[in-house]
Every structure is written in structure tokens, then in C-alpha cells.
Amino acid sequence: DAGVIQSPRHEVTEMGQEVTLRCKPISGHDYLFWYRQTMMRGLELLIYFNNNVPIDDSGMPEDRFSAKMPNASFSTLKIQPSEPRDSAVYFCASSESGGTRRTEAFFGQGTRLTVV
Amino acid sequence: LAKTTQPISMDSYEGQEVNITCSHNNIATNDYITWYQQFPSQGPRFIIQGYKTKVTNEVASLFIPADRKSSTLSLPRVSLSDTAVYYCLVGDFMNTGFQKLVFGTGTRLLVSP
To answer: Is B55 in contact with B46 (CB distance < 8 Å)?
Structure first.
């Protein structure tokens, strides 16, 4: 498996524009996480899904952020409208539940978003 | 979720053993302790996980005392490539057997020649 795939790797956009980040989790994984990382706030959990259903979106900063998972192999994180303070690296991660009781999330390479 | 406290940074030299301690005084009965490593410009990577006593794998060892209020990640004979941020996470398993991963500030380890 190629691991968690995120696109684009880099995105530069103007304030007020819509931004869509994409993630393809590892096949067979039933959990998907979206994180945001900045120097000031560290690594923040925004939302996570289980079997395509959002379980906890308490980390989503405001209504401008939305996330969807239409099927087991694809998820999007959308920011509309974008603001300069949204500039960060956004990571997607996936994992599988199971009987081993071991928790290992696999992270993508991240999308570096710059809003100017 | 139990709150964790780690040193902000640590310095070491190549070949030394590094021990990073994490405090989690409010750890719950069902909580597991997990450590992740993050290199610059990369996402975090799982290192090790444990519940009590000692766990060892090819990368590190994890020591957990009987009261479980702290844990120590031990990296034997570090190299320059071990320079990274190390995160300690504590959390319980949900019914489906998975842990909600909430990262703290981590410990920035710098290994020098």
C-alpha cells in the first residue's frame, strides 16, 4: 500500500477563496483523522471519522471548516472562505480498529496551506 | 482525556541513551500510553505503546511504573537521525478498540555529533 495520500502537497491561495484538501486513507482502515499543525498551536485534532461517519468534530475551529467522507477511500477538508490564520500544515491520518488493542495511526505527508 | 506533561526540549550526543519522561497523573484505568515521533516536514510516526511495566521493540523501550502516573521512553544509543519531536499520548479505547489521538506539545530532542 502507498500509505495515506494527501493532495495537494502545497497550496497557496488568496484570502476569501475556497480551499479543498484531499485524503486517501490506507485501504481497509476504518478510522480517518484530520489534524492541523502550526508553530503556535502545535498538532491539533480537527475531526475524525469511523466507517465514514464523523465521530468528533469538536476540534473544527469554526463554521468555515467542513469535512466529508463520502466513501471509505476518500475524504475532504474544506475551508470556505479561507483566512490568513488558516495557514498551517494539514495532516490526514488513518488507522484500523481491531482485536490487537494496538493503536497506530499512519499519517500522510501533509498539505502546507498558505493563505495570503 | 488524561493531560500529559513532557519536557519541552532535550539535548544529547550521538551514542548516548536518551530517556524522555512523561507525566500523566490523571491516567484512567482503561488508558494506554502511546509515543509518536515526528521529523521535520513529516507526519508523526508511531513508536511504541504500553499499558504497564515494560515494553520493548526494535526502536525503543517504554517503562511504566506500577502507579502508571508517568512513563519513560528510552532511546538506546541515539544517532543524529533521532533528532525529532517526541509525543506522549494517553487515552482510553473506545468500544471499538481505538484510541482518540490528541497530541500535546511534545519534546524536541536534538542529537549532536
So the answer is: no
Residue B95 pLDDT > 50, yes or no?
no
Give me the pLDDT at residue A102, please.
62
Residues of chain A contacting B93 with CB distance shorter than 8 Å: 101, 103
Q: What is the dihedral of CA A100, A26, A45, B51, to 10 degrees?
A: 20
Chain B residues in contact with A103 (beta carbon < 8 A): 32, 34, 46, 49, 93, 98-99, 101
Show the cell assigned to A55.
Answer: 465521530
Q: How far apart (Å, rounded) are the C-alpha atoms in residues A56 and A45?
A: 10
Interface contacts (A, B; CB < 8 Å): 61
Q: In this predicted model, what pLDDT tens digit does every residue of B51-89 receive, in sequence order? A: 998 999 999 999 999 999 999 999 999 999 999 999 999
Beta strands in chain A (DSSP E): 5-7, 10-13, 19-24, 31-38, 42-50, 53-56, 65-71, 74-79, 88-95, 106-107, 111-115
B98: nearest CB among A42, A45, A95: A95
Q: What is the pLDDT of residue B90?
A: 86
Contacts of B42 in chain A (CB under 8 A): 107, 109-110
pLDDT at residue A103 in the model: 66
